[in-house]
Amino acid sequence: MIRYMIVQNVLHRPLRTLITAIAVAVEVAMVIMVVGLTSGLLLENAKRVEGVGADIMVQPPSASVFLAFSGAPMPIAIGEKLKQLDYVQAVAPVLVQFNSVNGLDVVFGIDPASFTAVSNGFVFHSGHDLQTQNDILVDDIYAKAKKIKTGQTMHILDHDFHVAGIVEHGKGARLFVFLSTLQEMAGAHDKASIFYIKNDRTDHTPAVMDEVRQLLPRYEVRPLKDFISLMTSSNLPGLGAFINVMIGIAVVIGFLVIFLSMYTTVIERTREIGVLKSLGASKGYIVRIILSETTLLCVAGAICGIGLSFLMRTVFIRLFPALSILISANWILRASAIAIIGGLLGASYPAWLASRKDPVEALAYE
Amino acid sequence: MANAARIFPSSEVLTLARERALEPILKTENLWKVYRSGKVEVPALRGVNMEVFPGEFVSIMGPSGCGKSTMLHVIGGLAQATRGRVLLDGNDLTTMTDAARTLLRRHKVGFVFQKFNLLPTLDAYHNIALAQHIHGNGFDPHRFEVVANLLGLSERLTHKPSELSGGEQQRVALARAIVSEPKIVLADEPTGNLDTKSSEAVLSLLRQLNKELGQTIVMITHNPDAAAYGNRVLHMRDGQVVDGSTVH
How many angstroms separate the CA atoms of A221 and A209, rounded? Predict the structure, then answer.
C-alpha cells in the first residue's frame, strides 16, 4: 500500500520528479566522473611506467611517483655506477619533460640502446626507431588522438620534430625523443630524471635495491612491480582534497535540490498530511512516506547518473582517445550511497515539518 | 437547566440504553476550547455537555462560527480541549498525549469532511484501503467488499477522485471512514459541497449505515433537512449546546 502511494506521489508531479532525478543523476555522474578521471589517469600512468619493463626505478631524493613532476637533478654518470652493481643487467637514464601545449603530455628523453635493453624495445606500428636528433616516437593512442602519421612534422616544446615512428603504447610515456636532444632543450646537460634498472633475475630486486640505497642514500628507490599501488590520489598532493571538494559540491547540490523538492512537496500536500493524520497516521508513518519518496527519487536519479557516467565516458574517449576514465563498481556504489544519504538528509527537515503539522490547520489548508 | 436536560437522549433512548446497560460512547463534560490570537482569547466552545450512545445518529446544527467544527475536532481527537473532559469509548482525550490521540483516531474514529479530502494521487480503491493500512490490522477483503457494495462503489474503484462526481467522492470518503469499523463516525457538513440529489443519496447512506450496521454517527450540518436524517438533533449557539430534540 505504502509503496503504491509513494510511486503515485512521485508520478503525480512528473516534471518535478524529472528535475529532481536529473539533479541526483548529475550529482552521481559528477562524483563518478571526477574519481574515474583521476583514477583512470593515475592507473594508466602507472601501467605505462610498469610497462617499461624495468625492475627498479631510481629518482632523486623526495621525488614524486608522478613522473611529470620530476625535474632533472641527477648526474647521468650515476648510471655508470649503477651498471656496476651486482645482478644489474641494464640501466636506462630517462629525462622527463612536461609538455602543456595542446594538452598535458609527458615526454621521455631516452637513449635508444639502453632503453631497448631495459624494455625489450618498442613494437612499431609504422616507421622506425629514433635516428636523428629531431626524431620523435609517438605511441598509437596519442597518434590516434592527434591524428599523427609517420613522417609528418610535430611541434612540441617549442621545437619541430620529425615523427619517425608510431609505437605500441605502454612504455612509460606517449612521446619519446633522444635524451641528448631533450637535455639540450631543457638546459639539463648530463642530467637525468630517472634511472630504470633491469636485473638479471626478478628475484634479485630486493638485493639490488639494497645496493642502490647504499650507493645513493636518500635517493628514491622503488620496485616497479608495486608501482600501481603507489599511484593513488593520496600520493599526489592536493588531489585527494580536490576529489573531496568535488564530491562535497555534488553532495551540496543534491542536498539542496532534494530539500527544495521535498519542502515544496510537503507544502503542496499539507491538506493530504492532515487527512493522513485524521486517519490516525503517526508522525513516523508520515516521515516514512516522505523519506521513502526521497529514496525512490534518489535511486532513480542514481541509476540515471550511472548510465550518464558511462555515456559521458564513451563520448569523452571518442573525443579524446588519450583520456583514461576508470569507472569502478566501488565508486558506483559509493556515489549512489552519497546521493541517497545526502538526499535523505535534505528531506529530513521537510519530513519532520510534515510530521509536526497540526491536523486541524492542515485540513483547513487551501 | 431545562435546555440542558433536552440535549441529552430522550427518555426512550435512555430507557433503551439502560435496558442494554449501555454507557455513552461519547461524553463531554464542561468542554472548553479557547483559541489565542496574540493576547486575545477567543472561546470557541464554552462548557459543552453532551452524550452520544452507541447506535445513535446525532445531528448537530447551528449557525456559522457557533463552534460546531471545533467541537467535532475536539471530540475526534484532532484538537486538544482547553479544559473539561471528553470521554470517547471510555478514554479521556483531554489527558492523552498527541501520540495516544493519534492511536485513538486510528482505531475508534472515522471522519467524513465537507471537501471529501480524498488523496488525489490514489484511486478510490486505494483511498479506502489506506484507512485499513493505517489501522494496522491488514487488508480485510471481506469488510472492504461489504462496504464497497453497500456504498455502491464496486464499479468505481479504479477511478481517481478527479474522475468521480462529488457524490461519488463523498461515498468513497464515507467508505474510507467506516471500512476499519470505527466506534464512531464524525461527519463535518458531509453534504456541504453536494447538489440536492447527491446530498440525499449521501444522507440516506448515512442513515442506512446507522440502521443496518448500527454505526454511531455524529453529523454537523446547518441544513435542517439534512439534520432530520439523524435520530436526535442538537443545536449549538455561541459555543454551547443550547437545545436538543428527538426526531421520530
Answer: 7
Cβ of residue A274 closer than 8 Å to a chain B Cβ? yes
- Record: contact B73-A2, CB cut-off 8 A: no
Q: Is the torsion defined by CA of A173, A178, A180, A182 positive or negative? A: negative
- pLDDT, one tens digit per residue, over A131-155 is 999 999 999 988 988 889 999 999 8
B117 to A274: CB separation less than 8 angstroms, yes or no: yes
Q: What is the pLDDT of residues B177-199, one digit of tens each?
A: 999 889 999 999 999 888 888 89
- What are the φ/ψ torsions at residue B245 (nearest 5 degrees)? -150, 155
Q: Cell 455502491 belongs to which residue?
A: B152
Question: Touching check for A272 and chain B: CB below 8 Å?
Answer: yes
Contact of A347 with A290, CB cutoff 8 Å: yes
Distance CA B119, CA B127 (A): 7
Residues 6 or more apart in contact with residue B8 via CB below 8 angstroms = B14, B50, B51, B244
Rounded CA gap, A277 and A293, in Å?
A: 18
Question: pTM for this structure?
Answer: 0.76
Is B4 in CB contact (< 8 Å) with chain A?
Answer: no
What gap in Å lies between CA A98 and CA A112, rounded to an integer? 20
Nearest to A275 among B73, B79, B117 (CB): B117
Q: Say how far apart CA A305 and CA A25 lie, in whole Å.
A: 4
| B238 vs A71, more confident | B238
Question: Identity (one letter) of the amino acid at B87?
Answer: L
